Amino acid sequence: MQDPIDNSTLYGRVILDKYSNYYYYYFVTAFVMQCRILDRGSMFVFSNAQFQRLMGVTDPWKVSRLLDLGAGDGKVTSVIEQHFDEVYATEQSPSMRWRLGSRGFKLLDENEWMKVDFKFDIITCLNLLDRCEKPLTMLRDIKHTLQPTTGRLLVAVVLPFRQCVESGTKMTRPKESIHLSGSSWEEQVHSLVKDVFEPSGFTVELFTRVPYLCEGDLFRDFYVLDDALFVLKSSGKNFVKV
């Protein structure tokens, strides 16, 4: 996929331009590190063109409902919102929830979203599996709330896989651990599919390797991580405990 390179480069240039002024960079970053309410913490995973290619659709394609779990500031969500009649999101951070609401997204409680009385056409779970307390439970809840035949789940995971959960100012261990075999990117992708996705009732339609860019701090303008991006659908099988 060539677009990720082009769009990632553009994203990096925007960040560099944004913080090219030293004094602006210093004071704004210091303030945001305290309250996280300004326009920081953004990330880039894919463009709308790349989303369409992943889903095998064209620009006019539109379905009813999207749910973005752990949506952050909503910038990734806004990239694809044109394809949905309703956009729902969950987010733990109060300041990020405020931003999501200002974008017009419908906010669901992070502990209650799975109790809705309707199904979602697309659910995105981008760089969240390694940062939530119960990733396996979340996958089961996603399967339950996703349209059973036409629904699709987009999962982005940073590899190598390392779990930790942010709790206030501390990082803690998750309540559910995922253990992937292998040390290489390819080995961990294989383990993620066989040991996590398939036992959770999903099958892989396709996957790709993309750069995951997020805004940095006082020490670096931005960080580049290695994402595995999956398009999953329900296999029709129930969760299997492994």
Can you describe this structure in just a few lines?
The chain is α/β, with parallel strands linked by helices. Helix content is 32%, strand content 26%.
Word description of this protein:
With 242 residues, the protein is α/β, with parallel strands linked by helices. 32% of the residues lie in helices and 26% in strands. The chain has seven helices and ten strands. It has helices at residues 3-18, 22-35, 48-55, 75-80, 94-102, 135-145, 185-197; strands at residues 43-44, 63-69, 84-89, 106-107, 122-126, 152-158, 165-167, 170-172, 202-215, 222-234. Residues 1-6 and 8-40 have low confidence and may be disordered. InterPro entries: METL9, SAM-dependent_MTases_sf.
Q: Give the oligomer, counting copies of the same chain as homo and different chains as hetero.
A: single chain
Shape: globular
* Largest sheet, spatial ordering of strands: 1-9-10-6-5-2-3-4
Largest sheet entry: 8 strands, mixed
Q: What would you report as the Rg, rounded to the nearest angstrom? A: 18 Å
Class by helix and strand content?
A: alpha/beta
Q: What integer is the average pLDDT?
A: 83
Distance between the termini: 34 Å
